[in-house]
Amino acid sequence: MADKYRVVVCGAGITGVSAAYYLAQAGIRDILLVDEVSPLSLTSDRSTECYRNWWSDPALRALIDRSIDGMERIAAVSGNLIRLNRRGYLYVSADPDNSQTLIRSAESISRAGAGPLRVHSTPDSNYMPSGHRGFTEEPDGADLLLGAGLISKHFPYLTESAVAALHVRRAGWLSAQQLGMYLFERARDLGTTFKSGHVDAVHIANGRVAGVTFMTGERIDCDLFVNAAGPYFKEVGALCGIDLPVHTELHLKLAFEDSRRVIDRDAPLLIWSDPLVLPWQEEERAMLNSDPETRWMAGVLPGGAHTRPEGGADAGTTLMLWDYKTRALDPVFPPPLDEQYPEVVLRGLSVMLPGLAAYFGRATRPRLDGGYYVKTPENRPLVGPTPVEGAYLIGAVSGYGIMSACGAGELLATHIIGSRLPPYADAFCLARYEDPEYVGRLERLETGEL
Question: Per-residue pLDDT tens for 247-293?
């Protein structure tokens, strides 16, 4: 006779453990959390661990604001076990035209509910720098610093050509591993069981979920099945006969030893907003231009290069990222790495942080890894029911999985237990793609990913 659980959650990444936690908090005790690998060990531990409530999509902002509420509650009750801070995000521009775009976007996001926008343009401004530690007594909204002098006063390590810097305040980073383990352990305390295994089939009887079978042949009966399979979200959706409108993209990250302390250890997440040209010597540029395979490295590349310090004041590690090329592909592990990535990212960030040029050709070898973003066409997640009764989704959380996990897990639990849904719930349901008007607007929806 097969074992029986009320809920089987497939996937023990950050969204899966959050789903189990909030379902257990809602009173469901017989939950089975399943993954082939250890919890939080596939893509969740390759995150930059950052969060922000600064999104152009009001529905996504509302979900993540709610999620940040949850992270702050966990930080408060755990003695900040998750090491949550409010350093913020600093978007930097040296292009007068692009800085105007940055300003207009900030005004729009502020009006949409992300918090007040405070503009500073004089040396005696009342701009309040980040407290650097913890997450309490920090402002919300954003501060816009205008003018090279004012920016250099507060961020002397940035390029002197910067003309605008937007400091988003309900933002920062945390220990994603500690957050995930807190959710996992609390779920287990409330009766959730973890099982290592590969779900090979989902059984549907009379239009509703009846159970799952593992690759070993073992059968588990269940009433509810939650697809939280991370990079395998689409593949697991197919087990329920559902073709999910998602794709996967490879995103890389490097950990760089900043022995010269170019980047202030108390810096916020630093983001270069302008398109840029990598700084090469003339002979290097000529060589790159001579080869069709490398010519792109000598041309104009998109903005978005970003970095932050990792570890305490005595550490020297910085995390560096830049999605200058989209790599859409099916997930494979370990993910394929790009040998050019460290050099390109270092040179790209040197446009914002000129001191990094001291490392050209003499940097210690950085640690490079990568993971996958699962994305819908408009970059909104999928959280909620499916056409198969008893089958639910929590995934397609793109590059905001850590910051949205608490909100998404709570929303999924609300769907399952039948409580009153928040106003943003419909924006993340699979059923939205059945609305021809919504589908017609997909290309115009902007979620505000970096």
Answer: 999 999 999 999 999 999 999 999 999 999 999 999 999 999 999 99
Tokens of 115: 């918090």
**Residue 30, CB-side half-sphere exposure with 13 Å CA sphere:** 9
Type and span of the H or E element at 109: helix 96-109
What is the per-residue pLDDT for 181?
97
Tell me what percent of the residues of the chain surpass a pLDDT of 90: 87
Q: What is the mean pLDDT of the chain?
A: 95
Joined tokens for residue 183: 């959710």
Q: What span, in angstroms and rounded, lies between the C-alpha atoms of 351 and 92?
A: 11
**CA gap 55, 426 in Å, rounded:** 18
Q: What's this model's pTM, rounded to 2 decimal places? A: 0.95
Q: Is the peptide bond before 268 cis (omega within 30 degrees of 0)?
A: no
Q: By mean pLDDT, which of 276-280, 369-373, 406-410 is the weakest?
A: 369-373
Instruction: Report the distance separating Cα 93 and Cα 155, nearest Å.
Output: 13
3-class DSSP assignment, residue 362 = coil
Which structural domains are found in the chain, ordered by start? 3-80+176-245+376-444 (3.50.50.60), 89-170+248-374 (3.30.9.10)
Q: Which of 119, 100, 117 is nearest to 109 (CA)?
A: 117
What is the C-alpha separation between 173 and 71, in angstroms, rounded? Answer: 11
What distance in Å separates the CA atoms of residue 239 and residue 241, rounded to the nearest whole number?
5
Question: pLDDT at residue 197 above 90?
Answer: yes
- Which long-range contacts does 339-344 make (Cβ < 8 Å, 24+ apart)? 340/297, 341/252, 341/254, 341/368, 342/254, 342/256, 342/366, 342/368, 344/278, 344/297, 344/301
Gyration radius of the chain's alpha carbons: 23
CA distances from 78 to 23, 66, 81, 82, 178 (A): 20, 19, 5, 8, 11
What letter represents residue 239's amino acid? L
Helix segments in 262-372, DSSP class H:
282-289, 341-350
Q: Are 343 and 258 in contact (CB under 8 A)?
A: no
